[in-house]
Amino acid sequence: MVSHHKLSERHACALVGLSRDSYRHPIVPSTLNQELLGRIVQTAHERRRWGYRMIHDVLRPEYPGINHKRVYRLYSQEGLAIRKRKKTKRVGVRVPLVAATAINQTWSMDFVSDAIARPGVIARRIKCLTVADDFSHECVDITADFGIGGHYVTRLC
User: Fold this and answer.
1) What are phi and psi of 145, to 5 degrees?
2) pTM of the predicted model, to two decimals?
3) Which of the listed residues 49, 57, 83, 129 has the most CB atoms within 10 Å of its CB?
4) What are the sequence ranges of the domains in the chain?
5) What's the number of CA atoms in the CB half-sphere (13 Å) around residue 129?
6) ∠ at Cα 37 (34, 43), nearest 5°?
7) pLDDT category, 123, cuts 50, 70, 90?
8) Alpha-carbon distance 156 to 144, whole Å?
9) What is the mean pLDDT of the chain?
């Protein structure tokens, strides 16, 4: 823009959004970064399951001045990444629910909770275990208590 359109350096940098200091002093890649980048790529290809943290741990004795942020920047700049493993789906045998054809063939249980409130007293939770017959939809049992644990449920049913 400066040479072709005869704009001033200040105006051209303002149009592009570049600082004048960056225009005057272009970035020169350091030899340490180039060397480090080569070692990171080499290690990443040798050890495919290692991420940037593991590579940083291996390179730290060799390059004591580097930190994990620098290794991450070079690692991602090169487009390296660990492939995420797909979760294996568990293949189990599902048993379909059988509709009840007679009374007391199958029962269903569920918990219901509510709170007892009195003026001036903190509300207390009350829990109810309801057992219903699937065929007749009758309520076989309702048990109410402030806390119903697993042992309590097995003793009831």
Assistant:
1) -160, 170
2) 0.46
3) 129
4) 9-77, 107-156
5) 16
6) 145
7) confident
8) 12
9) 89
